[in-house]
Amino acid sequence: MGDPQILILDEPTSGLDPNQIIEIRQLIKKIGETKTVILSSHILSEVEATCDRIIIINQGKIVADNKLEGLKSQLGNRKTIIIQFSNEIREQLDAFSAELKNNLAIEQISEEKKQENVVVTINYAGDKDIRNEIFALLKNTDLQIINFNQKEESLEDVFRALTQAKGGDDNGQDALAKNQQEKPQEKQDEINVLNEKNETDTIKKEDETK
Predict the structure, then answer these.
(1) CA distance 6 to 61
(2) Which of 2, 137, 177, 199 is the most exposed place for a label (fewest CB within 10 A)?
């Protein structure tokens, strides 16, 4: 097929099994070391796994141009910590929640009962990792932890925040300041990935619906 300097791929992993998907990812990265690869995909997990740099276009205008970590930082580096306890000691749970709100930059704390377990969800933003401080607060309690994990924003979260800004003002730019304001989307967008030498650029093209 020759030796093109620019290679355009449309949904290259569609219909492939997991092993084939991994092979295609590796092939794209290898080609991208010396060639420019434009990859069009609606599967944002594939973009995350393949790309280093992302450009998102909403309603014909660029609303983001950065690496994934840079995009997350623009939106405040929002994180979620989920703690599951096997016992419910109401007094200690209430004291724990109060300590979190008073001493740490917590945006929101919610609690859910799942059978005999209690699940506490903590939402916060910023570069600081507060897990050690949370462990320190729990160390002197009788609460029994059976699960503790932290989730960061995915590319899908970033994409939705930038393309579903309230009222569509400034084509998604308001989302950077307001974080994640959401509105039902009138247009379906697709993301294109541009891999240029050691960097993979992602371009989102707008697919207008009637």
Answers:
(1) 23
(2) 2
